[in-house]
Amino acid sequence: MTKFINPGLMPTSRRNVLRGSLLAGAAAMSGAGAFAARRAPQPLKADAVSRSLHKAAADQPAESTAKPADLSGYTRVKQDLVAPPFAPEHEQVATGGPKIIEITMVTEERLMVVDEDTGASVWALTYNGSVPGPLIICHEGDMIELTMRNPESSMMEHNIDFHASTGALGGGGLTHVYPGEECVLRWKATKPGCFTYHCAPGGAMIPYHVAHGMNGAIMVLPRDGLKDAQGNPLRYDSIAYIGEQDYYLPMDENGDYKTYAAAGDDYADSLEAMRTLTPTHQVFNGAVGALTGENALKAKVGETVLMVHNSCNVDSRPHLIGGHGNYVWESSFTDQPLTGMETWFVRGGSAAAAMYTFEQPGVYAYVNHNLIIGAMLGGTAHFVVEGEWDNTLMEQVVAPRPFTT
Ligand SMILES: [Cu+2]
Questions:
Q1: Is 319 annotated as catalytic?
Q2: Annotated catalytic residue: which of 105, 148, 199, 355?
Q3: Do residue 10 and residue 44 come from a single domain?
Q4: Can you give the CATH number for the domain in which 99 is found?
Q5: Which of 79, 163, 270, 295 ranks highest by number of CB atoms within 10 Å?
Q6: What 3-state class would DSSP assign to 126?
Q7: Is position 158 annotated as part of the catalytic site?
C-alpha cells in the first residue's frame, strides 16, 4: 500500500522510508528528509497529532522486493555494555564463526555537572546514561543487533547513525524513536577499525544532540586480531575508552552558566552558543576531572593499554605526556599502524586507537595537545602507573638547586 508520508515531496511507502532510500542525500542532512518532514524535530515531547501520525504510518504493511538476510551460520550472543572508560568483555581473536551480537541501548536524558568549580551543567543526551555512550566491540563479519529504547519520560526523539555501518544514513533513517518507543536495527560490520556513532534526528538537532553528549564508539576488530606492519600479532592487556566532548554551555549576562529545568529547554540558547564554534568545555568522558584524581586510569609497568579515543564533532590531537603511541590506527585496522607516534590525530567524526606499553611508573597525562583545550577546557585524563623506576630510561642526575656564576 502506498502512503503519502511526506506531503508536498513525493509519494512513498512506509517500507521505503524505513529502508532509508528517501533519506540519502543532502535533503536529509538539512533536515528535509522523510522523517524530518513527517515528524519535525522539536525539543519538546512529540505532540499527540504527530505521534498518532507516526503510529498510523507504522501500521502500514511493508512493501519491499529486498530478500531477507541470510542469517544461517551466525551464532547469537549478548554483549553487556558497560560504562566508559571500560570495555565490554570480548575476544581479541575471534573464535568460531560470525556472530549476531545483541546489545541494548536506552536513550537517557540526564542532568550532568560538567565542571564542579563553576557549577556548569548540561542536560546530557546519552546512550545508556554516559558521555560518551558505551564502547561496542565486535569482529569483522559479525552483525550488531541493537535494541534501542527511548523512555516515556524523555523529552525528545532520538536515533543512531553508526559510521561503521552501510546504508540508511548509518541506520539513522531506521531508528527514530519517540518517547515510549523502541526499535531493533541489525547491521553487518564489514569494515575493521574504530568508528564513531551518534544521534542524528535531523537539521540543527544533529549537532545539538551530538554536542549534548549523544555519541560513542564501536571497535570492529579483524577476526585474527590486531597486527603490526610485518603481520605479527599485537595484543593488549586492557582498554581505556576515552570520549572527547565539546560543550557550548550558555551563560547569562553576568558570565554565569545558565541552568534549565528539563532537557531541551536550552535549545535556543545552545544553538546561539554553538554558532560561535567555540566550546566552553572540551572534556574527556563527559566532565572536567572525569578521568583525573580519584577517577584516574590505572595501569602497571609492562602493561599494554589500547587507548580508544572517540571524537564525534571536533578534531583532536591526543598525546600521552611521558609516553608514546607505539602503534596507532587512525584508519582501518587492515592498514599498517603508525608507529612511535608522539601525537596522533582523531578526525572529528571518527574514533582512533593507540597502543602503548608502560615502561615507567608515575602519573602520565593523556591530553589533547592543543594545550589550551587540554589545560583550560578540560581535555585531560591521567594514567597512574605502578611499578619500578628505570634509571636507564630517565634519571634526575641533579635535583633543582641554587647555582652561582
Ligand atoms: Cu538524540
A1: yes
A2: 199
A3: yes
A4: 2.60.40.420
A5: 270
A6: strand
A7: yes
